[in-house]
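We now fix the convention by which a protein and its fold are recorded. The integers have meaning only within a learned vocabulary of local backbone shapes. The record below shows the convention in full.
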Amino acid sequence: MPTHITTQCSIDNYPLQLHKLERLSNWLLKECAVPDHDVSIVLVDDRLIRELNNNYRKKDTPTNVLSFPFSEGADLSSLAQIPVKELGDIVISLETAAREAIQFNHTFHQRLSWLLIHGMLHLQGFDHERSKSDEKIMFSREQEILAKLNKKRGQQMNHLAINVDHIATIRQARGITEPDPVAAAAICELAGAAGIVIHLREDRRHIQDRDVYLLRETIKTKMNLEMGANKAIIKIALEVQPDLVTLVPEKRQELTTEGGLDIVTQKKKIAKTIEKLGKGLIPVSLFLDPDKEQIAVASEIGATFVELHTGRYCDAFSEQDQLHEFELIEEAAEYAVSLGLRVNAGHGLNYQTTARIAALETIEELSIGHAIIARAAFTGLDTAVRDMLKIVASAKSSL
């Protein structure tokens, strides 16, 4: 890869994800028209960057970023003979970056992004210390790159799909006609939801056949029909033609879906279901635990999406456990995308756990139901949806 990252200090105390930094650096190389060059990023503490600043700039103080162009002082004709194109080294102090993030009211990653852009421009010959006019030129280029980066991140913002099953659960508790999930879906869409999710279970404990047919007629955004690989329900799906079918496991005794499909042991059955739905031009998503073996099979048997099960991440008791589960989801999403799959995520997400998942660039859509319906009991459904949309929308800008 064009970017090489090394750490010469402890990174445990920083919200740092090296693969994101690498991805940003590779994007910057393309943006700066040098995608065929290598760049080295060295992450250090204040002590080490102070030593470098003193040795090379005669300033005995820590700084935020130093750049060392590979071509500086070199004979250009000799450089042309080297088979590898080197841009140079960028040294960033994580300690200073963390302090400046607080000072400028940025997230740590936002500050790190700016320092990387600043360092990359120095490698290309920009120098704000040379003159006032050079300072203006460099500042203008920084702002141009930041604007493109923010636009890129904004375009990748996740969609929010609302599961209205629990509106039907309340209705079924009394065996009457209210509240109606069809009306709830309309409110969710008016509040900004990008899709509606319903789960037609074999035992019909909440969503009923009538709901499925009516929702197909009334949903204006996108209809995601969750279901088991059941012949009768497959028949309904083929008649209704949802925009997406998400295959999920079902157990009659469970209160809600407890984990992802095991498609490794059900490969033939799930493959046949995908084939049947594919003939009806219905794309299929598979609800899976963040497990690479399961994801590999999903790709092999023709799924279009995987929806990563976020339940263990949401239910983690400690910060350490939650971080571990998050990293599994992140790695699984990256792997799925590398196989050509599209990625959604859901299950158990609430107003405390959603932001971190929503910040993942690899995930297109979040499916959230129970937390929103529970909040709606106190705030109203429109407000509950809008509150969640704010979390999802702001997550990308916190990268």
In short: The first helix runs from residue 18 to 31. The chain has two domains: 3-155, 159-397.
